[in-house]
Write a structure and sequence with these properties.
The chain is mainly beta. It is built from 1 helix and 7 strands.
Length: 104
Amino acid sequence: MVSRGAPVAEQIDGILNNQVLKFTVVNGAAANADIAIAGIATADKIVGVAKLDFTLNEGTPNTRTWEASDLTSEASVTSAGNIQLSTTNTTSEVLLVLWLDITE
């Protein structure tokens, strides 16, 4: 765990102006397969990975099912520009990935 003093104004400005907190939406992949995340580095910190599942069931009336799953605990940055999920297959799913860009 990193220990620091109170943040200075420049640090807060950087976070609020999206210079530190980054996010992207990407297509999922099989478990233990690379998922490309432009700009992520191995020293960066993953804040959250949410799997978003949207299903349309046609009928009278059409219905939409929306589900979200938190996969943060199994996500890791495995190489520059790539993350992996250790156990969940997210093929045909969408992932919302949030990370702290601490390498800049």
